[in-house]
Amino acid sequence: MSLLHVAIIVPFLWAVLTPLLSGLLRRAHTGWLVLPVPAVLFVWFLLRIPEITQGKALRSSIEWMPSLGIDFTACMDGLGLLFALLITGIGTLVVLYSIFYLDKSKESLRHFYVYLLLFMGAMLGVVLSDNLMVLYGFWELTSVSSFLLIAFWHTRDKSRYGAQKSLLITVFGGLAMFAGFLLLYAMTGTFSIRETIAQAHDIAGQTLFVPAMLLILLGAFTKSAQFPFHIWLPDAMEAPTPVSAYLHSATMVKAGIYLVARLSPVFAGQAEWFWIVSGFGLATLVYGSATAIRQTDLKAMLAYSTISQLGLVMSLLGLGSASAFFAGAGDSLLYAKATAAAVFHLINHAVFKGALFMAVGIVDHETGTRDLRRLGGLMRLMPITFTVALIGTFSMAGLPPFSGFLSKEMFFTSMLYVQRLDLWSLRSWGVVFPAVAWAASVLTFVYSMIVLLRTFAGKLQSDKLKRKPHEAPLGMLIPPVVLASCAVVFGLFPNLLAYSLLEPAMAAILPDLLAQGERFHVSIRLWHGWTPEVFMTIGVVLAGAALYKLYGRLNVLQRPKTGGLWLNRLYDGGLGAAETFAYRLTARYMTGSVRHYLIYIFVFFGVALGAALLLSNGIRFDTSRYAPVSFYEAAAALVMTAAAVAVPFANSRLTAIILTGAVGYMVTLFFILFRAPDLALTQIIVETVSVALFLLCFYHLPKWKKETARPRFKLFNFLVAAGAGAIVTLIALGASSGGAFESISHYYVEESYRLAGGKNIVNVILVDFRGFDTMLEITVLGIASLGIYALVKLRLDPPLPRKPAEVERNGKTAGGTLAGSNDVLLKTISRAVVFIMITFALYLFFAGHNRPGGGFIGALMTASALLLLAIAFGTSAFRGIVPVDFRKLTAAGLAVAFLTGIGSFAFGAPFLSHAFGHFHLPILGDTELATAVLFDLGVYLSVVGVAMTILLTIGRDS
User: How many CB atoms lie within 10 A of CB 67?
Assistant: First the structure.
């Protein structure tokens, strides 16, 4: 495993360790435990700059699902390095800021930092993945982790609403992007981004090319809050300020921009790409600027300003794509300047917007409000915060000598160059671009001045503030001061970034413009003469100042906000209509009748599988391969049939449970007759546990009431039952007749020991050949056990008080715990039997790789022993004897299983690869050791945890 993979995985591993470390170091703020992660990663990425500037790209691949073309391939070029530095650099400052912003005595810091680390790792995965499917997985993980961060204050309605809106919109876009990736794969036959770029010229004219482009852009636009998908971003401001400073200025909202930049070599040079990317970008720029000036909440104003700035960067990427049309010609570099401006402003925006979010957070933290109508006059009380805000707003407004001025000048230059482009009717429409850019810049100047002057200038309104304002503590000031300082340094010395970051990033975005060994040469100067761009800037300042004065006279802050409400109403109305439709539809078929549900299942089952059998000619009846039926098999079949037929006629639940168990035990007998010891062991233990579970469930139900009713023949029920039985019979006959597929059993027989080092073929299949299936199965079991626990423990109404006599009569002790048995013989025997059962379970576990047994069977045997102990001595005594939280045991088992799979990456092997070998151990001598046993340990722990969680939860329910 390369260090590049380690850099992606470390935040996830630290997210697992953070709760444990914070539990051990309770006095320390959890943020101090997290801070080293982004800091160390940032330094490591900084040290990679010399390699990247030399034109090298770090690349490493780990096989995952090679048959599907899905590998965990990490690749870092100039673009990936730029985003990695933003993610880790801003992340370091945000973590430091959050230490002083979030009170450890009031906030759930473990959750906060786990979510933050998950998001950080997911973002690194997005920008460093070369495989489209892996990128998509990380992409959706950013949506999930951002949902958790936005909803961190989950008791607030607005927080939950904002989190839900962001999740729905970004996941919808992510699914569209996923479909676009599949279309790209259909055209190229690869999920590798590098290989797709290499085939860009071959796929440009294909039918699926434009649909793939549109779907991918839909994913990018929703993630980067482009109009009209921007509505989630203002509501996401309900998150804590550190989250806003990280996700909504430097990282998550830049993911869509990253995707557009990364796939520009595939789609650039196409008219559709140029018009859609630049058009939506300009529309977002204007809309965000116009809406920002109407906000009264500082964070809302910064949210709309972020939307506006994202539109600016997106429009520049669209304009820069025109250079690909002139690849190899002199004009290509002319339009490549737009790409350079996009990359430069990407950095500048992360710097000044991060500083501004932190400054607004300080204002909110120290005054108790973000309402512009209550603020003012804070300049003298909070001088450092004012200085940070001054630098941030001036840079955002595009004023010298700050870095935002330079990227804004480059923006104007790019817009003016568009008029020269003799393509796609731009000779006529090109004049619109600089006009729109200038108008949006005027509005940007206005809202920048509103943020600065309405907060810090004017008269102090102490009576409207919740707290007496004062300067923030030093720890909260350091991060925004660092970012503000960067805005100054990058403005005075822009070429610090030109060689190290801008040129390598441009080479990654526009590789076709460079010949082998060539590189871009970017030179940025603070003063470049009296150019049209300078006069446009002067016009922006004059017009902006006039509009700001008019803004104050019109008293805009006191007027109701109307901008953008129709889009929110459309979202709310659509979501409400979907919920209403879903409720009405569900109410029609979710009747509460088990009979109805079984009808749905059996009818669908019969129609789907019956059609499949007919279409595939799967109905066969070949008895030539059947073995003769022995007397014992016939007798067992007769007993099993009689027990199954007797179940509906049972007069009590206990009788029905015993008959059902008899059917299961007869199946065990069949496995013994067919010489399948693993299956027999599993079946008998599962049946034992199932019978106990049925008894615990039915214990809570009221007694059966005997009713006399004339039985009626129901034709529909008969047809459904007969159809389901007939389909199962036909499938069994068709499968046993053979001929459709070559049997794979010979492969397992021949290769189980050679490839997996195990003689027990069943266990080898479970933990090696089909280990991925097993891992997903125990995951589902874990989720199901937690679901049962939640459903049983959920109390919508407080329980009614119960009399002691009722408790004693029902066999329960106070608090809903299962009382112990009064049978002295059971208690005495169980002490010895439990020890024997657990010893046998451990034998099954350790011997399972070569003899009958395994983690699953051993876990069920252990659960049976523990259940016997709980029944004999009662739940309270059992908790004292076995003080284990079985939900945590389930989690531990899943962690062991997953980490075993991930561990194979360290040796350059695909996920869940196993190894084995023979070693000479003291006393034991020659011993075979297999890594599959570690995975089996995860299965063992998780199954024990699942079984006991379910059994004890139901057994303790009062």
Answer: 6
Contact criterion met (CB below 8 Å) for 519 and 55: yes
- Weakest-pLDDT range from 121-135, 787-801, 807-821: 807-821
In this predicted model, which residue has the larger pLDDT, 421 or 825? 825
DSSP state of 560: P
Strand pairing of 817-818 and 925-930? unpaired
User: Using CA atoms, how far apart are residues 197 and 52, in angstroms rounded to an integer?
Assistant: 19
Residue pair 296/372 in contact (Cβ under 8 Å)? The answer is yes
Cis peptide before 804 (omega within 30 of 0): no
Beta carbons of 92 and 39 less than 8 angstroms apart = yes
Cβ pair 57, 77 in contact under 8 A = yes
pLDDT above 80 (res 819): no
Helix axes 109-128, 36-46, angle to 10 degrees: 20
How far apart CA 221 and CA 217 sit, in angstroms, is 6
Q: For the chain, count helices (H), then strands (E).
A: 41, 6
Q: Rounded to an integer, what distance in angstroms lies between the CA atom of residue 692 and that of residue 868?
A: 10
C-alpha distances in Å from residue 584, one per residue of 570, 572, 578, 591:
21, 18, 10, 12
Helix (H) or strand (E) run with residue 538 in it? helix 532-554
Q: Find all residues with CB under 8 Å of 717, minimum gap 6, and list them.
A: 595
Cα atoms in the Cβ-side hemisphere of radius 13 Å centred on 793: 11
Phi, psi of 105 (to 5 degrees): -85, -15
- Would you state the structure tokens that stand for residue 462, as one six-digit string? 């102490």
Rounded Cα gap, residues 300 and 233, in angstroms: 9
pLDDT in tens, 570-592: 999 999 999 999 999 998 888 88
Task: Decide if pLDDT at 738 tops 90.
Answer: no
Pull the structure tokens for residue 841. Answer: 């379970």
Angular region, 69: left φ>0, alpha ψ -120 to 50, beta rest: left
Burial 25-42 (b: 16+ CB within 10 A, else e): eeeebbbebbbebbbebb
Residue 678's closest CA among 777, 564, 738, 764? 764
Rounded to the nearest 5 degrees, what angle is found at the Cα of 95, between the Cα atoms of 93 and 96? 65
Residue 539 identity (one-letter amino acid): G
Query: What does the angle CA 457 – CA 463 – CA 466 come to, to the nearest 5 degrees?
Result: 95
Q: How far is CA 928 from the centre of its chain?
A: 39
Nearest to 741 by CA among 616, 880, 889, 886: 616
Of the candidates 100, 130, 106, the residue with the CA atom closest to the CA atom of residue 195: 130
For the record, the structure tokens of 450 come out as 């509103």
How far apart (Å, rounded) are the C-alpha atoms in residues 673 and 678? 12
Residue 801 has pLDDT above 70, yes or no: no
8 A C-beta contact, residue 941 and residue 890: yes
